[in-house]
Amino acid sequence: MQDLRGSSTVGGKFDKNDIIFATDWDCVVVDEAHEGTTTSLGEDVIKNIVKENNGYETKFLALSGTPFNILSEYEDNIYTWDYVMEQQNKHEWNSTHFGNSNPYDELPELKIYTYDIGKIIHDKRYVEMEDKAFNFREFFHVWTGDIRSDRKQMPKECEIGDFYHANDVKSFLDLSTRSDENSQYPYFTEEYRMLFKHSLWMVPGVREAKALSKMMKKHSVFGRGVFDIVNVAEDGDEEEKSDDALKKVCSAIESAGDNYTITLSCGKLTTGVTVPEWTAVFMLAGYSSTSAANYLQALFRLLRQTTCRLFSDFCGKLLADYFPCTVSM
Fold this sequence. Notes:
Layout: H1 18-22, E1 27-30, H2 33-36, H3 40-49, E2 59-64, E3 78-80, H4 83-96, E4 127-128, E5 133-134, H5 136-139, H6 147-150, H7 166-175, H8 190-195, E6 198-202, H9 206-216, E7 227-231, H10 245-254, E8 260-265, E9 280-283, H11 292-299, H12 304-319, E10 325-328
Parallel strand pairs: 1-2, 2-10, 3-10, 6-8, 6-9, 7-8
Antiparallel strand pairs: 4-5
């Protein structure tokens, strides 16, 4: 889709892909349709490939794992295979297919936990929507040196790129590694740390990721040598060489041994890739206007590899029967 959008046929700058647009296609499949088909340029690409009123009936299948913003474009031609259906089939297989091997056995169970930071860090600046939403963008705000963005003069002891609320961020890191009678914080015991041996932390932006990486590497727990903090936001940290993000993460995991890795990202590696070793995603990037798609794209990094194999079988059956349609996973 990205390459086709650059073609002169749809108003792009490059004279390419003419044969693609000139062909009468029997079937067109668009993956990640919630992104590729929603812009005017994306719509022009589809119109020039899925031709209408020319006597040729092209079948069109839109695939999406987070189709919230395109469901209104379809009526009753929506076919869903979701996580709940998958897990239900997994648990009911032996009673409905006794004696046959369960194809869902290796598909992991997704567990979602919440930590109520607002009860511990009491500051109205971090709360939105009548005390219902915690604003991580404000919580991880960094000094920019621009008084309009910073809202006040930067203190002399601070540098551009430091956390605006440094003490609170440090308290958050301390909190995630301490014992509490009411909560089971993720990095308190060795048992918990093994559950989150390799994890992905989603933060609001590039500057925030760099500031968090810097603070974590100096922290009494995260900085003591058993955690490898891997920052893949934009080009990562200045002192590291700029490698491909996926290669950087895989290399860190491979060399971790008995140690742990934490990957910091503000968007990279949340669409189209899977890191099988990741066992947890920590969503530290949300606020009141964050879409559900942003959350789910990250969360399903943990389930994607095994799910997609069965999903492809489902789509194969679907292709023969129903068009045009959209499929949500």
